[in-house]
């Protein structure tokens, strides 16, 4: 999950001058009619752009790394050629897919009609298809990316899979002090204090289960942020996998486990294990990953969840509350997963 929030001020749509400058670089978009901010994610800024010739998704790449953005675009174009549901960028008259105006990086994509669906909205068959789709993403990335390409760790990748409990205990103490001292102490703060104390006790009991440094599942190129808000459905079928900003190298099976823990979490913080089982089996069939690889990944992601407090860090250390609504279920899941460790492991590896 993200660690560095984007300032809310960055949500303002581009002005008319910027839009006209941008669209003049393309052959097909026409004249702008409207540019509406979409429901914002935590890191990306996107807009529904209507022109005299159609609708587009306009993306403002806030990190501004033009080379990395262009690499992502090349990969999605190759995946599109293989038949994966993606929304590759529109090229301008010079064949470029990244436009820089006043130091800001923009990209234009075709508009994809569709809906986001979490795991609760998916049937068991659709859940299995989701696992197969992610498996296909991983195998196709291996096919389309030149093996000589430098393989950085995926940007913003979670770093708690091998976290030292001593560091986590220190962080818990800092967050507890901030939560208890906050002026206007409310129900969220009470829940945060409860979960922080509870998590410290869990870590004290399970510190000996920290994953070994050498026990890393097979790595490879991954999407990096595969979750319901980055997958659009049209009727029963996936229409587009979007937001490839975190394309990079990670343990592949960890992405599969991490995605399942987002798709299939219930509001109370439990996982729909029957759907997880079908999803994981389809992923393994598609990639050839064995049960041991998924079991190791499940263990590392469980440990990651025990040590991860990014939502509380945003609230108490950065003053940003945009992730507050995710905290109750995520915090409850860490506790439930610890209690049901064997059942969760079996769902991924069985």
**Outline, from the CA principal axes?**
globular
Q: β content, as a range?
A: 5-15%
Q: Distance N terminus to C terminus?
A: 27 Å
Largest sheet: 5 strands, antiparallel
Mean pLDDT: 91
Structural class, judged by helices and strands? alpha+beta
State the helicity in percent bands. Answer: 40-55%
What is the chain-wise order of helices and strands? Answer: HEEEHEEHHHEEEEHHHHHH
Radius of gyration computed on alpha carbons: 21 Å
Poorly predicted parts: none
Description:
With 350 residues, the chain is an alpha+beta fold. 45% of the residues lie in helices and 14% in strands. The protein contains 11 helices and 9 strands. The strands form 3 sheets. It has a 5-stranded antiparallel sheet with strand order 1-2-3-5-4, with helices on one face. A two-stranded antiparallel ribbon has the order 6-9. The protein has a two-stranded antiparallel sheet with strand order 7-8. Strand 1 and strand 2 form a beta hairpin. Helix 5 packs parallel to helix 10, helix 6 packs across helix 8 and helix 7 packs parallel to helix 11. The radius of gyration is 21 Å and the shape is globular.
């Amino acid at each position: 999950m993200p660690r560095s929030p984007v300032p809310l001020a960055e949500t303002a749509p581009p002005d008319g001058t910027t839009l006209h400058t941008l669209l003049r670089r393309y052959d097909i978009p026409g004249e702008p009619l409207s540019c509406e901010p979409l429901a914002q994610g935590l890191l990306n800024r996107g807009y529904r752009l209507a022109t005299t010739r159609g609708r587009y998704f306009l993306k403002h790449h806030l990190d501004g790394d033009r080379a990395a953005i262009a690499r992502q675009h090349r990969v999605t174009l190759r995946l599109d050629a293989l038949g994966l549901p993606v929304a590759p960028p529109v090229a301008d008259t010079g064949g470029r897919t990244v436009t820089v105006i006043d130091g800001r990086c923009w990209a234009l994509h075709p508009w994809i009609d569709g809906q986001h669906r979490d795991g609760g909205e998916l049937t068991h068959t659709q859940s299995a298809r989701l696992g197969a789709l992610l498996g296909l993403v991983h195998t196709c990335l291996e096919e389309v990316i030149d093996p000589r390409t430098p393989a950085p760790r995926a940007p913003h990748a979670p770093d708690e899979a091998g976290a030292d409990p001593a560091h986590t205990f220190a962080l818990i103490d800092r967050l507890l002090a901030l939560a208890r001292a906050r002026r206007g102490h409310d129900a969220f703060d009470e829940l945060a204090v409860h979960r922080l104390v509870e998590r410290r006790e869990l870590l004290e009991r399970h510190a000996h289960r920290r994953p070994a440094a050498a026990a890393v599942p097979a790595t490879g190129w991954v999407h990096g942020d595969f979750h319901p808000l980055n997958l659009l459905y049209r009727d029963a079928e996936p229409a587009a996998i979007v937001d490839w900003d975190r394309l990079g190298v990670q343990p592949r099976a960890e992405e599969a486990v991490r995605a399942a823990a987002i798709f299939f979490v219930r509001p109370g913080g439990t996982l729909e294990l029957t759907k997880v089982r079908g999803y994981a089996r389809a992923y393994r069939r598609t990639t050839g990953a064995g049960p041991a690889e998924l079991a190791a990944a499940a263990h590392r992601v469980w440990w990651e969840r025990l040590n991860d407090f990014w939502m509380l860090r945003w609230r108490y250390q950065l003053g940003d509350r945009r992730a507050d609504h995710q905290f109750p279920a995520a915090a409850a899941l860490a506790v439930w997963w610890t209690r049901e460790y064997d059942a969760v492991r079996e769902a991924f590896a069985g």
